[in-house]
Amino acid sequence: MHPAIHKDRLWSHLVWPLLWPLLLAQLLLVLLCLAVGLFLWLATPDPTSWAASGWLLLTLLVGTTLTTAAFLLQLRHRLRECEAQMEEGLGRVERLLLEADQILPCWLAPPVLTVSDLDSPNARLEKLQTNVAQLHARLRQAPDLGGLLMSVSRPALLLYQGRIVAANIAIERLMGVRAEGLESPETRLRSMPVRDGEPIEMQVLDAEERWRQLEVERFEAGDYQLLLFDDLRDRLPQLGGLVAARERAREDSRLKSRYLTLLQRELEPLLTELTEQMQKPDCLAPGHLTELRERMAEVTLLVKSLAGDGIAHESPDGSLVSTPALPLRVLVVDDGPVNRMLASQVLEGQGFEVDCVSSGQEALDRRPLQAYDLVLMDIYMPDMDGLEAARRWRELEAGDPEGSRSVLVALTANASEEDRRRFREAGMDDYLAKPYGPRALINLLRHWRPDAFDVPVSS
C-alpha cells in the first residue's frame, strides 16, 4: 500500500486543526511588525532614522517565515512516514483476517466486512474491530477436535508435526498415561513393517509396560495425523457372534429346504387323492372329509412355517424365553412328518427333550421305557387312532401306580363339542386344534407346566 496515492489523512485530520492557530499567530506577528515599521516610517520621515528598524523588522519577518516553513516541512515528512507505516500495518491485518476467513468454513458465520483503501482511518479501524469480533465468534463455533476425539470409542491419537497434541480416554487407559505425558510418541509407539494387502500395525506400550500389537488406521491432513487403533482381541466376541449368526442362517436355510421337500411330498399324494375322491360318487362321506381336513391342516401348518410364522424362541407376549427351569420330556405321536418336525423344532428350541413316533403302537411301546411329562397325540392315524392309543396309555398308567401321570393332548383339525367329549372320555386332558402355530404350542405347555419356564426376559 503506497501512501502517495492517498490524501494526507493525518495532516488533514490531526495536524491541520492544531496548526492553523499557530499560523494565524505568526501572521498576526508579521502584521504587527509591518504596523510597527509603518508607524516608524510615518513618525520619522528621515529615511536614515528608520532604515535600521526596517531592516530589523524585515529580518524578523523572514526568519519567522523560514523557521515556520522548515518546521512544517519536517512535520509533514514525519507524518507521511508514520501514515505509511500505519497503512502497511492495517493492510497486513486486513490480509491476515482475509486469510483466516478463507480457512474457516463459510457455514460457521457470515463473511467478514470488506475494508476499502479509500475509507478513512477511523472507518477502517471500526471495520477491522468488527471483523476481529466476527472471527472470534466463528472460531468458537469451529469443530472441537479434542471433543470429537474424546467421543471416539476406539483408542485414538492426534499428532501435529510428529508430536502428540491430543488423546482420548481409551488410549489413556490403554497406555496408563494421561494426555499431558504423551508428547513424544517414540517412547510409546513402534511402527511395524507394512506388508502388501495387510493392514498397518503398530506396537503400543500399555499400562502394564508390555508391548501390544494393534492395527492402526492413519489419516493425514497437512501437518496433522489421526491414528485410530483397533485391538484384534476385542474383535473375537464380535467374530464369534457373526459365526453363530452365519450358522443359524445356514440352519434356517436347511430347514427351509426340508420344508419344501416335505411340502412337495405332502401335496402330490394329497392332490392325487383329492382328484380321485372327487370323481367318486361317495366323495362327500364324513370319514373322507375328516381325513381330508386332517391332511389339509398339516399342509396349512407347513405353509405357515414357510411364510415365517415360526417363533421357536419367542414367548406369547413377544419376549424371549430363557432356558427352562425344569427340562420336560415330550412325546410327539403323529403320522405326518410335517407335524413331527415342526413340533420337535419348537419344543427343542425351548430346551425340552423331544421324542417322535409315527403311530399309536410305537407310543405305547415307549411308555414302559421312558416317562413323559406331556404327550401330543394325533387323533387320525392308521391302524390305531389317537383315542384308542390314549385309552391304552391310561390303562398302562393305572397298572403302574408308582409312575407319573402324563398330560395327553389331542392334535386334531376337528374340535367340535362332540369331539372334545370323546377326547375327555378317552382320558385326554386337552386338545390343540390344527393347524397350530408355535405360539399356541408354547401357550399349551405354559398352561399345563408353568413350573418348567423361567421368567421371560423382555426383548
Automatic annotation (TrEMBL):
Domain Response regulatory: 329-449
Modified residues (4-aspartylphosphate): D378
A family per Pfam: Response_reg
Domain of life according to the entry: Bacteria
Enzyme class, spelled out: transferase
CDD domains membership: REC_hyHK_CKI1_RcsC-like (cd17546)
Protein name: Signal transduction histidine-protein kinase BarA
Keywords: Kinase, Membrane, Phosphoprotein, Transferase, Transmembrane, Transmembrane helix, Two-component regulatory system
GO molecular function: protein histidine kinase activity
Transmembrane segments annotated in the record for this chain: 20-43, 55-73
Annotated GO biological process: phosphorelay signal transduction system
Lineage: Bacteria, Pseudomonadati, Pseudomonadota, Gammaproteobacteria, Oceanospirillales
Documented EC number(s): 2.7.13.3
